[in-house]
Amino acid sequence: MPNTKQINELKVILLDRKEKLLKNILGSRENIDLLKGQDVKDDLDYAEVVSDSFTEGMIANHHVKELEEIELALKKVEDRSYGICDMCGVVIPLGRLKAKPYAKYCTECRTAFEAEQAKGK
Questions:
Q1: pTM of the model
Q2: What are the residues whose beta carbons fall under 8 Å from the beta carbon of 97, sequence distance 6 or more?
């Protein structure tokens, strides 16, 4: 299990990423608003605005999802359950947490989870 110092280091990483995501989400929303306000002269302009708006929306949605995962990880830090696999209850290796500080699953459970997700598609 990561020690207190390691958890605090990971918490700082989570908080920094959270701040960046919030700025990115705000920026995407502002960009979408700017795109909506553009003067569309023809079908090509309209298609470009729609495409750009869609792209910005997809980026913002991805950031919102990551932000939710970070918020959950921060709650786990506070309730001292951080670093424990949600599926099997084993300690998530420190290397995995350093690579993905908001990881909910150990490597084995993540692989199983992804396999189940792929079957459902």
A1: 0.83
A2: 2, 10, 83, 103
